[in-house]
Amino acid sequence: xxxxxxxxxxxxxxxxxxxxxxxxxxxxxxxxxxxxxxxxxxxxxxxxxxxxxxxxxxxxxxxxxxxxxxxxxxxxxxx
Length: 79
Hints:
By secondary structure, the chain is mainly alpha-helical. Helix content is 58%, strand content 0%. The protein is built from five helices and no strands. The protein is globular, with a radius of gyration of 12 Å. The relative contact order is 0.20. The model has no long low-confidence stretch (mean pLDDT 92).
C-alpha cells in the first residue's frame, strides 16, 4: 500500500482502525477541526509530539505516517 500523501496515509490508518475524526481527536487531545485540517491537507504541519500521539493511537509506525516508508505497522515477531 503506497499512499503518497500524509493525508491519504492518515485517512487509511483511521479507516483501518475504524476511527472517525472525532474519535482520533479525543484519543490524542486535538480538536476535530485540527484532524480535519490534517486530512484535507490544509494544515501547515504537525508538532512532533502530536505526530507520535497520532501514530500510537492509530497503531502505525511513525515513519510510515510521516513519510510513507513501509511497512505501515511493525511486523509481529514470534516470541
